[in-house]
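Subject line: Sequence and fold of a protein, written as structure tokens
Enclosed: The protein record, placed directly beneath this head.
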Amino acid sequence: MLTERRLAAVRRTWAQADGPYGTRPDLTAWLLALGGRDTIALGSAVTPPVRPVDERMFDGRAPRGRIRLSRPKL
């Protein structure tokens, strides 16, 4: 006997099986439906807020360091 949750999952899988080739459920979808496992609907990702940039760091007047380049030793 199927629980209400499993019955709903099996009905959704049957409805998907009626679709065109390539969209029909595979064996894994049937196992998940009959096993009482279901899909989890995820919301969209929340983008982090834009952090303010300290424009003084990019005014071009700050002293710059030097990088020494040397030839590799053979």
